[in-house]
Amino acid sequence: MKKSVIIGITSFLVFGLIWYLFFKKYDYVVTFKDKTAPGTIFQGALDWGDGLKKSDSIESKIVSKMAFSTIVQELKTEQSTIVFNWFFEGVNDSITGVKVGVIDSNNSIVNRIMLPFSSEGVKQFSINKVVSFKNSLDKHLAKHKVKINTASNIPAQFCAYIPIESSLQSKGQHMIAINSYIMGFLQKNNLEVVGRPFIEVNYWDIQNQKIKYNFCFPIEELEMLPYHKEIKFKKISAKKALKATYKGNYRTSDRAWFLLYDYALRNNIKIENKPFEIFYNNPFMGGNELDWKAEIFMPIIE
After folding, report:
1. Residues 43-68: pLDDT tens digits?
2. Do residues 73 and 45 lie in contact, with contact meaning Cβ atoms separated by under 8 Å?
3. Tell me: the pLDDT tens digits for 229-247?
4. Which distant-in-sequence residues (6+ apart) come within 8 Å of 181 by Cβ?
5. CA 75, CA 82: separation in Å to the nearest integer?
6. Cα–Cα dist 7/153, whole Å
7. Where in the sequence of the chain do the CATH 3.20.80.10 domains occur?
8. What is the pLDDT of residues 195-233, one digit of tens each?
9. ∠241-253-259 over CA atoms, to 5°?
10. 10 Å Cβ neighbour count for 50?
């Protein structure tokens, strides 16, 4: 009886060691949670990788990604190639859990042997990099606030607009560049702006973060309107939508998009991925960015 128990324990330990050295998925795993949407951390991880090239001389490469869900990222150092497998999952309407499974492509077996006895190697590298990312993420989150207001309506209005195509990250730059162009045309033709400027997104490539949108200024609807080869006119119809209030620099107002997207997914609400933003402050006037307000809408499919 004792012999069979010993054999059983020994077999268990041997198979456990074989699994640990050769079949365990990751050399090391780092986890954390933060108060934001999965999309915000997903985008932050992509931007963070680009920053490593400048700060730590690490070559960062995105091997694959699934929007707001996973990233496989290679970090090449002088000694090895470290693979970070990022996983993002919403815990509730405001918290996201993050798991980073790490593999040292060149020294995996050695790392697994040394891991129980040393805090150096892939373990320390992983902790240092993820902590660095978490710190930069928290600094970013402190610069804006987003609150979900649940169901609302996109207001009906008539507007002058310019269609734009850009990356999500450069949305704010394009708006700044075009703002005076539209305003100059409206003032020249005595067309008074009668509400807040807004953008109407017609296409959002979530996987590649590309967008097509109209940058709009509400004006009175008239029978006769001046011609312009780039500036167009249209009527926006009212539409039921999820709504969030964003406060912060308008360059990162898409953080509200991510929160509304995750909220709809979690609550089984069918939406069109066509955000609509109304801006209540003039960035050219400066001031505390946390006082800048935008209302963000995500159309509901009824």
Report:
1. 999 988 877 766 667 888 899 999 99
2. yes
3. 999 999 999 999 999 999 9
4. 162
5. 5
6. 69
7. 146-299
8. 999 999 999 999 999 999 999 999 999 989 999 999 999
9. 55
10. 10
Token pair 């990222």 is at which residue? 73
The two three-digit tokens of residue 158, written as one number: 């008539």
pLDDT at 274 over 90: yes
120 Cβ contact list (under 8 Å, min separation 6): 114
Domain with CATH 3.30.530.20 in the chain: 22-142
Global confidence as pTM: 0.86
* C-alpha separations of 251 from 70, 123, 129, 168, 262 in Å: 24, 36, 26, 9, 20
Report CA-CA distances (Å) from 276 to 158, 250, 281.
14, 13, 16
Domain 146-299 listed as CATH 3.20.80.10: yes
Cα–Cα distance list, 231 to 176, 193, 207, 214, 226 (Å): 16, 14, 29, 10, 10
**Alpha carbons 151 and 128: distance in angstroms, whole number:** 41
Overall residue count recorded for the chain in this entry = 302
Residue 134 near residue 97, CB atoms below 8 Å: no
Evaluated on CA atoms 300, 161, 249, 31, the torsion sign reads positive
Q: If you classify domain 22-142 with CATH, what class do you get?
A: alpha beta
